[in-house]
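Q: Can I see a sequence and its folded structure?
A: Here is a first one.
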Amino acid sequence: MALYDTLFNELDISSAQLLVTDSDFRDKDFRKQLNETVRSLLSLKVIPIFNENDAVSTRKAPYEDSSGIFWDNDSLAALLALELKADLLVLLSDVEGLYSGPPSDPKSKLIHTYVKEKHQGEITFGDKSRVGRGGMTAKVKAAVNAAYAGIPVVITSGYAAENIIKVLQGQQIGTLFHQDAHLWEPVKEVGACEMAVAARESSRRLQALSSQERKKILLDIADALEANEKLITIENEADVAAAQQAGYEKSLISRLALKSGKISNLAKSIRVLANMEDPIGRVLKKTQLADGLILEKTSSPLGVLLIVFESRPDALVQIASLAIRSGNGLLLKGGKEAKRSNAILHKVITEAIPDTVGGKVIGLVTSREEIPDLLKLDDVIDLVIPRGSNKLVSQIKSSTKIPVLGHADGICHVYVDKSADMDMAKWIVLDAKIDYPAACNAMETLLVHKDLVQTGALNELIVDLRVEGVILYGGPRASSLLNIPQARSFHHEYNSMACTVEIVDDVGAAIDHIHRHGSAHTDCIITEDREIAEIFLHQVDSAAVFHNASTRFCDGARFGLGAEVGISTSRIHARGPVGVEGLLTTRWILKGSGQVVDGDKEVIYIHKDIPVDS
């Protein structure tokens, strides 16, 4: 105890020793008093140090009877964690954690996550610890008991500096014991081609289901996400902590975090998607080619999709639900910074998919090295959708023969015309920039009509942006007039609380600027002049063009698509927010009654359009 006093005194913290015996835990009054005592000591900034009062317990081995008797400090720690309803129990050892065999054996491997069903019969314990009485066997028993009662436990080395702090930061230190650990057990690693083929085979079983059966899968996924929200949040918080520790940019961390209410909103979006009209097998056009010969053009899944995305784990949920609704197989590759979030989300979602389809309909690619192999599978994968930086999209486009759908940049403009309602302009400009600066539909460039300089309206907008903490850069005209740093390039996506400002002569100049420096994503005009608005709406060649509305509305969920796999600036197949319809192609179904061509001698073509519901 003297050592504890000395160590804590160096930190100006007091400590107090509390001695307990096995029999104390039989007494309900003692247990109640125990909680009150600990709370009181902590409120006084006194660290309680628990110790066994007897040198050696005469009781049986831990947990062999229902009274909860302890016989060493490990079992005592587990009991105290349960009694005090601890958030976490850290058991310190003289080795890094639990190994598959004796730590001294070079073949032994550190077990990062203990899965009782897998490891219970596989581990060979070595010699007893050099310190304490219980050894690793006692630590594992104590950890399993606490973990399966709801207290997460980490066994790690007490000799390594700052190990406890690293555990609290969510770093992968030592061995974790958790009642839900079996949910995190990674699936057996398979090759890229095998994974893609399995996704295609499973997607065909998915397409063979009835509309109601596919709908039920989505509803089950929504329920599973909500049921596992706490577990998902824990894993996501660990990713966020690791990203902060690694010094990632704030914009990436913002996209990485699943903020409060996000899981609930994702589940709600999935239910909206589930209740939409079944997109598969819809008759889009029906034609009578000849007497008794009917041709139907029907909607059909594309096949297998490969989605490569960065940072945002919520994208995994949206994409997976859209793939299920559209009957497509799916391969997902998320960023390494969201590894734990993606793993648990994938686990929860695939376990909600019935065996008649199989969880392999959605494959999670965990290694970056597998991407080049996947991009070669143009005979199995039908569409690649990259969601991320310009560099990511460009690399993928140059590395595959598979069609690529997506956008490289989200350089969105808001043009404030001279006839704009300035109160409206203020709210739209602020929303477009600060509602979610890291989003691809956030405003990156503010264009202002030159007449608004004289009226003072431009200065008001600048003040409003600065008050909200937006860093401003200017084009050649705006930088000198407003005395702000000149932007190095108009073609720049900040993804943060920053934007470029430039002054233009009129709507024509604004359109020219957007075509020259934009990314054909989303652009907006604020004006009360309908004629000017129509010119802008019809001439700006972007995937989404708005009048008097924030660029932030360019979103699959807000468009009523249920969700989106991304926003496409391509001009072929799909453009703008890509929902279910963007993941479909068409097939031709011909129904005859024995007709043959035979040089068209006997066929009289009429090519008559008939109602699709006839």
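Q: Show me another, different protein.
A: A second, unrelated one:
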Amino acid sequence: MRRRGPEFRRQVRRRLPNACWLTFGIFLIVIFFVFFTGDKGEMLSQPHVVQRYTRREQVAEDFNTTVEMISPGSFVRQLNDQVSLAKAFLVMAKANNDLQLAWELSAQIHESQILLSKSALRRTPLTTSESDGAIRDMAILLHQAQQLRYDSATMIMKLKATIQGLDEQVNSLKEKSNKYGQIAAEEVPKSLFCLGVSLTSEWFGNANLQRRLQENRQEAAKLEDNNLYHFCVFSDNVLAVSVVVNSTALNSKHPEKVIFHIVTDEVNHAAMRAWFTMNNFKGATVDIQKIEDFKWLNASYAPVLKQLQDSETQSYYFSSSGGDKATPIKYRNPKYLSMLNHLRFYIPDVFPALKKVVFLDDDVVVQKDLSDLFTLDLKGNVNGAVETCMETFHRYHKYLNYSHPLIREHFDPDACGWAFGMNVFDLVEWRRQNVTGIYHYWQEKNIDRTLWKLGTLPPGLLTFYGLTEPLDPSWHVLGLGYTNVDQQLIEKGAVLHFNGNSKPWLKIGQEKYKSLWDRYVHYGHPLVQRCNVH
């Protein structure tokens, strides 16, 4: 076969020699080597300050101030111990009028504290060069103080004497504070006195008020109707009773069924009648009596009245120089011999036609409907009350003298206490069990004040022992007159009790709770404004 001409032949590919490929491979290896060697060199060429900074962070992380302070060989601990001792010597130097040493100690304490602060801030231990001078100078001062007989034994004795003196001052100030607080709580504010006088003048000068009272007496049948809700309050404070009545009526589902029985004294009787005649409380009925009209309440029947006539008792309660000097002033408050205060033990005698009543103190505010109290089953007991023994100091041993055999033999010291201020009384059961007679028995046994000292609660605990039915705590929230009360308890409470000296109508009342009381005060009344009641 004939071969094609050269112009028609396919060109042949020429292959690169092996030497070229070898050269190219060596070139790539060199470039790879140079690249990684340069990167490593750049990494190795970083400044040494970064490495030093990293080492410092590591030291700071390892430094623990607490461990350093308790370490036996630590300069921080030595300085702290010296500063503590120097502060004690500083007190003694000032007490001994050694002002030069006191100044030197104070300056050295300041210098040591600066060193300790620096160590804590930079988070590194103190070095020998930093702390040596301060430790040495402080040691010299402490030795000097010891040479001046400011030794530990002397310091302890003097400090004990100082502490004892301060304790005596604190006790004296507490006693004065209690005394002045008690006086403030007992005194009638000028504005309330003005209101009482103004109402009394209004009653005797306004024939229309007396005529309106006579018209209201046509509803006298309500006062003995046991199908209605009967409340009783015994007080000589017009404004306080007004708040109790107003708050109860405003929060009642059926205010027309609410009957208030108020007992006061001769001095405030006209003022009470004037106020409750000229004001309307949503249709609630208010009846007012005076304790002087209860002819059956005399010294031959009531032991408290008999004690009131005793010269020793009068000296104890009413004389500033009489009685036991060690007895706190709160135990010698004359109000505890007030018959208005003790009238709660004679409720069946005051209201002979009634079967059940709710007793309210005049320092309470009602913020729920109380009609359910009249349908509560007291399970044969006489008194329905909220117990207060959530803490141990509200048990019987807190109120009674258990060193007396009569108390020790008849009453459990850990029995749960309860509170007056909102109580449901079954008067039928009261009369059946002659509870007033029980009260008379214990009152006569306490003629020398050896069974208890304070108020009406201790005789109440004795009188109603085994005759009290515990109520749900939300019915009666206490403490608004002397302590802090949980806001949730206040919101859920049916009756809020300002027991204690800080009554809401006094200037010493707790401001944070005053609004709970203020909302039921008739501040818009002309007589209230005239007397500047606020």
